[in-house]
Amino acid sequence: MTAKKSANDGSPYYVPPEPKPLPSFLLAVAVHAALLAFLAIGVSWQKVNPVSVEAEVWDMSVQTAAAPELPPEPAPEPEPQPEPAPEPPPPPPPPEPAVERPAPTPDPEIALREEKKRKEEEAKKAAAEDKKRKEAEAEQKKKKLEEAEQKKRDEAEKIKRDEAEKKKLEDAERKKKELADKKKADAAAAEKKKKDLAAAKAEDARLDKLRKEEMQRMAGAMGSGGTAAKSTGPRSDGGYIAAITAAIKSATAYPGNTDVGGNPRATFRVEQLPTGEIMSVRLVKSSGVPEFDRAVENGIKKASPLPKKKDGTVERTLDVNFSMKDYD
Asked: From start to end residue, where is composition biased (Pro residues) (predicted)?
């Protein structure tokens, strides 16, 4: 089939092929079959069976009964006349050739409005996306700040726990060191006490030796010279007593509490050589406070040699008294 040109714009077009007749024929057969079925159903629905009526006649006279009449036979139903065969439908007319119409010229104002509308929708969409993005960023930033704050609190708690643990360890170490220092101090004090005791024993031995030598010297002097020193009691010399008291007091260190009632008093007997060196110290009367008694005794020993009188002599035996209030 050749192509034909349109009379409007001269552009070529093609005539579409004719449709196949088989589907149209089958559709016509189906329609006629449905019509026949409808007619048959209508005829059978309007069929009415005749009603038979029976009657009996009685005669008072005696008669021979006649046989009853039989009802008439029903008329035969008319046979349905066959429908004439349907004529095939005429073929459909060929479709008109499609004519291509020229595209309409777009209106500039409509195009501008559509472009403006499109830009507004794009701007709204961009604004919505930007808002959503900013909200997501703000939420992310808030989440990061909360995480940072939580991390900061966790670090503070960790530092606090570490400091508490460190302090606990330091306290344990300090207690351990204090215990070691106390043991060391106790050992040093015991060693010092041992050394002081040994020194005191050595000093007592030295003073005993000096006292024996002095006694031997005095005994030899009395035998060779033929004269003997007279035993006289100690003469009152306020300056001498004051000097001895001051010397012993300055050498005595009593760290205890002196605020006690009754002003305890200790009395010591001191024996000394002519040079003023102390040979022995003996507690005659205790103050009742052992620490005070030991402090005064140590002070007397440290004050050796004791001051002499103005004439250079000393009292061989002295009784010295010290009250606790003297050390206030």
From this structure: 69-107
- Do 213 and 247 belong to one domain? no
Query: Which letter, b or e, does each residue of 138-173 get, where b requires 16 or more Cβ atoms within 10 Å of its Cβ?
Result: eeeeeeeeeeeeeeeeeeeeeeeeeeeeeeeeeeee
Same structural domain for residues 153 and 205?
A: yes
> How many Å is the Cα radius of gyration of the chain?
77
Complete edge-to-edge strand list for the sheet that includes strand 265-272:
278-285, 265-272, 317-323
- What is the total count of domains within the chain? 2
Q: Are 194 and 251 contained in the same domain?
A: no
Let me know if residue 144 belongs to a domain: yes
Sorted by sequence, the CB contacts under 8 Å of residue 78 that are 6+ apart come out as none
User: pTM to 2 decimals?
Assistant: 0.32
The one-digit pLDDT tens for each residue of the chain (328 residues) are 444 444 445 556 556 666 677 888 888 889 989 888 888 887 666 555 555 556 565 555 545 555 556 666 666 666 666 666 666 666 676 666 565 665 666 677 888 888 899 999 999 999 999 999 999 999 999 999 999 999 999 999 999 999 999 999 999 999 988 989 888 888 888 888 888 778 777 766 776 676 666 556 544 433 333 333 333 334 446 688 888 888 888 888 888 777 777 788 889 999 988 888 988 899 999 888 888 889 989 989 888 888 888 888 888 888 888 888 776 6
Report the alpha-carbon distance of residue 216 to residue 225 in Å, rounded: 14
Same domain, 189 and 118: yes
* Residue 305 structure tokens: 């040699």
Q: List the domain range (segments joined by +) for residue 169.
A: 109-220
Give the chain's length. Answer: 328
Question: CB-hemisphere CA count at 13 Å for 33?
Answer: 6
**The domain spanning residue 321 has which CATH number?**
3.30.1150.10
Q: Are 253 and 230 in contact (CB under 8 A)?
A: no
Residue with tokens 């010229």: 105
